[in-house]
Amino acid sequence: MFIYYLRLAMLSLRKNILLTSLMITAIGLGIGAAMTTITVNYLMSADPIPHKSDRLFYVQLDNWDPNSPYQEPNEPPDQVTWLEATNLMAAGKAFRQSAMGQSTLIVEPNRPEQKPFVTRVRMAYADFFPMFDVPFLYGSGWTANDDLDRRLVVVLSKATNDEVFGGVNSVGENLVMEGRSYQVVGVLDDWHPRPKFFDLSTGAFNLPEDLYVPYSLKESLELPSTGNNNCWQPVSEDTFQAFLQSECVNSQFWVEFEDPDDQYEYLAFLDNYVAEQKKLGRFPRETNNRLSNVMDWMENQEVVAEDARMMMYMALMFLIVCLLNTVALLLAKFIGRTGEIALRRAVGASRRTLFAQHLIEAGLIGAAGGLLGLILAWLGLKGINGLYGDQINGLTSLDPNMIALAIGLAVISTILAGLYPTWRACSVPPAGQLKTQ
Amino acid sequence: MLKMNNISKVFRTDVVETHALRDFTLHVEEGDFVAVTGPSGSGKTTFLNVAGLLETFDDGDYLLDGQSVKGLSDSQLARLRNEKIGFIFQSFNLLPDLNLFDNVDVPLRYRRFNAAERKRRIEEALEVVGLASRMRHLPSQLSGGQQQRVAIARALAGQPRFLLADEPTGNLDTQMANSVMDLLEQINKEGTTVVMVTHDPLLAQRAQRNIFVRDGRVSEVTSNADASELLHKTAQVG
Ligand SMILES: Nc1ncnc2c1ncn2[C@@H]1O[C@H](COP(=O)(O)OP(=O)(O)OP(=O)(O)O)[C@@H](O)[C@H]1O
Ligand SMILES: [Mg+2]
Fold first, then answer.
1. Residue ranges of the ABC transporter domain (chain B) (predicted)?
2. Which segment of A423-437, B167-181, B204-218 scores lowest on mean pLDDT?
3. How open is the CA angle A59-A63-A67, to the nearest 5 degrees?
4. Domain carrying residue B163
5. Cα dist from A40 to A4, A304, A311, A370, whole Å
6. pLDDT beneath 70: ranges in chain A
7. How far away, in angstroms, is B23 Cα from ligand 2 center?
8. What pLDDT sits at residue A137?
C-alpha cells in the first residue's frame, strides 16, 4: 500500500510541477537556513572530550582588584598568575594537573634551504598529554622530571614535523629554536579538539599550537606570554622576574580527577591555599575560587556566541514561515482534489487510508525539500567558511548526525504542515462531489 | 437484501430544511433489477446515496445484506462500500491521471488483494466491457460511452452484490445508452442486484421493477417483467 501511495504521490507531484517546486523550494530554503545555523551552534557546543569532560576541571582563583571584580557581578579572573601556576603544580594535589600558556619561538631548520619561521608554542606540563588524550604519531610527551629539570625538550604537531622533518619519525632529533637545541621527544597525530577547550582565551576554534615545550622554560628562557594577559595593577619594575611575580593573569590551569567528587576536596585545598596567600598580603578580595568542568567552562566562556544563537532562532522562525507557506500551498493542492477524494471514498477508501495517502505525499515533498535544504546548508556553511575562514575552522562541516537531522526535520515539519490540509481533504463527504463534474 | 424502512433524510442549511426522503420504505430482493424514476429533486439521488452508504440518514432502519448499517464507523462503512457495492455515476468520475487499468484498480487496492489477483480481476472486468485492448489508455482518450464502460468495469471488478447506478446513461446518446443498458442487464443476469436511477422511461421499462419517487417517498411500484419481455419482442419484430 505504501508503494501505491508513493506512486500516487509522484503522479500528483508531477502533475503540477510549478506548485510542487514552489513547495519544495520553500521547505528547502527554510531547512537550509535552519540547518546552517543549527550546525554552527551544534559544533560550537559539542563536547570536545566526551568520556572525561566531567573529570577535567578548570581552576579559577580571585586575586583581583579589591575595589572591582574581574568581571561583573563577581567573576574571578579567567586565568591564573605564574605564581599560582607554579605553586599549584608544586602542590600536585590532583590526579593530574597542568598549568599552561601560549608563547612563540622561531624555528631554525637544519636544512639550509629552509628559512627560519615563527611558531605558536604551548608551554605545558608533562600531564598535559595524558590529561587531554593527545594522540601521538611517534614517541610520547616528556616526563615530570623533564619539567623539574627544565630540559630543552619539544613535542611537535604533525604539521610542524611534516614541515621540518618531512614527516619522518623525528624522535631523538634536535630542533634548533632561537639558538638553542631542543630534543624532539614526540610527534602528535592530527589533533584538533573543537572547541579548543583547554585554552578558550586564544580563539575557541583555532587550531592547537605548532609545538609544545615545558612550562618551566618560561622562567629560565624568559619566554614571552602571547596569549591573553590581564593585570589590575602595574608591574613593579620592567623586568621579566617582576612580571612573573606580578598579579597579572596569563596562564590556564587544568586538573583531572579520578572521580568528579574529588573536586570538593580540591576546592578545600584551594581555599586553604588562598588563606595562606592572604597572610602574605595577596588576594585582597573575598575568597572566590572556582572549579568548572569542561562543559561548564565552555558555557561560562560563552563558546556558543550569542549572535550565533540569535541567528539560529531567526532561521527557525524563517523555517516556520516557510512551513506556513507550505500549509497554504498544500491546502490549495488538496482542496483542488475533492472530486478524486470523494470518488476514492465512494469505492472504499476510509478516512484513515486517505489520511495516509496524503501524508505520504506531504512527506515526499518534505524529503525533497530536505535534500534541497541540505544542499543549501552545505553551500551556506561553505559561505560562512569563506567569510570567517580559520576563525571557525571545522565548524562548517555536515556530519551524518546533521544530515539525518536535516532530512528528519524536513519530513517531520512537512508532515506537520500537511496535517491540516490533509484533515481538510479527508473531511470531504463521499457523496456530493460525485453528482456533477 | 436491501431493506429500507421509514427512512428519512433532512438536509439542513442555515436558512432551509429540505426533507429529501420521508418515510422512505423499499425492499430490494437479491437479483432484482430496479429502475427508479421520478421528477427532478424528488430524492432519487439521495436514496441511492443512502443505499450506497455515502450518506447517513436521520430516521428509520436500513439493513444491507441483513446487516443494520446504523452506528457503523467510517472504516466499517468504507469496507462495506468496498466489498458489497459498486457505483456508477452519471459523470463517470474516472480519475483523469490514471490509465484504465489503474482506474479499475482503485477499489481493488482498498480491498488489499495481491497484485496477481488484482491484475486478473482488472483484465476480466475490462474484458466484460470490451475495453481490454485499451488498458493503458487514459480516460480522456475514450468516448463518453467507453468511459462509462470503464466506470462499470471499476464497479464490477470487486464483484459486488449491489450495483447502484445514478443516471448512468444521462450523459450518453441513445445508442451508447442502449449498449450500457445491455451491459447492465447482462450483469444482472449473472446475479448482481442492480438499482438504477433514470429519467428515460424506455430504459426504465427494461427493468424488472419500476419505482416512482415523489417528494421523497416511494409513490408507486410496478412490476413489469412481462412488459419488458413484450418490449423486447416488439423491438425485434419492428
Ligand atoms: N447536499 C445537499 N444539501 C442540501 N439539499 C440537498 C442536498 N442534496 C440534495 N438536496 C435536496 O434534496 C432534494 C432531493 O435531491 P436529490 O438530488 O435526491 O434529487 P434527485 O431526485 O436526484 O433529482 P435529479 O433528478 O435532479 O437528480 C432536493 O430538493 C435537493 O435540493
Ligand atoms: Mg439525482
1. 2-234
2. A423-437
3. 135
4. 2-237
5. 39, 9, 10, 18
6. 387-398, 432-437
7. 19
8. 96
> Which positions ≥6 away from A105 have C-beta within 8 Å?
A118, A119, A121, A177, A178, A211, A213, A223
| Residues of chain B contacting residue A355, judged by C-beta atoms under 8 Å apart | none
DSSP for A382-435, written as a single string:
HHHHHHHGGGGTTSS---HHHHHHHHHHHHHHHHHHHHHHHHHHHTS-SSSTTS
Residues of chain A with Cβ-Cβ distance to B91 below 8 Å are 434-437
Instruction: Tell me the C-alpha distance between A323 and A328, whole Å.
Output: 9
User: Are A311 and A401 spatial neighbours (Cβ–Cβ below 8 Å)?
Assistant: no
What local confidence, expressed as pLDDT, does residue B235 receive?
45
What pLDDT is recorded for position B64? 93
Mean pLDDT for chain B? 90
Q: Give the Cα separation of A320 and B4 in Å (integer).
A: 52
Q: Is the CB of B40 under 6 A from ligand 1?
A: yes
Total domains present in chain B: 1
CA distances (Å), B56 to each of A336, B9, B96, B109, in order? 25, 8, 29, 25
Grid cell for residue A241: 622576574
Q: Is the pTM of this model over 0.80?
A: no
* Chain B neighbors of A349, CB-CB under 8 A: 78, 110
What are the φ and ψ backbone dihedral angles of B93, each rounded to 5 degrees? Answer: 55, 50
Cell numbers given for A249: 593573569
Asked if B201 contacts B210 with a C-beta cutoff of 8 angstroms, the reply is no
Distance separating alpha carbons of residues A200 and A298, to the nearest angstrom: 8
What are the extents of the domains in chain A? 2-48+305-435, 62-288
**Residue given cell 561560562 in the structure block:** A300
Task: Give the single-character DSSP code of A288.
Answer: -
C-alpha R_g of chain B: 18
Closest CB to A15: pick one of B52, B97, B112. B97
Output the CA A75–ligand 2 centroid distance in Å: 83
The reported pLDDT for the residue numbered A202 is: 78
Which tens digit of pLDDT belongs to each residue from B175-190?
Answer: 889 988 999 999 999 9
Structure confidence by residue, pLDDT tens digits, B36-83: 999 999 999 999 999 999 999 999 999 999 999 998 999 999 999 999
Percent of chain B with pLDDT over 70: 94
Q: Are A377 and A29 in contact (CB under 8 A)?
A: no
Q: What is the pLDDT of residue A99?
A: 95
The rounded distance, in Å, linking the Cα atoms of A197 and A195 is 5
Task: Please classify residue A115 by burial: count the beta carbons closer than 10 Å to its beta carbon, then call 0-12 exposed, 13-18 middle and 19+ buried.
Answer: exposed
Question: Which residues make Cβ contacts (< 8 Å) with residue A44, sequence separation at least 6?
Answer: A195, A204, A205, A303, A304, A305, A308, A395
Q: What is the CATH number of the domain that holds B210?
A: 3.40.50.300
Q: Considering CB atoms only, which of B79, B106, B111 is closest to A344? A: B106
B148 lines ligand 1 (CB under 6 A): no
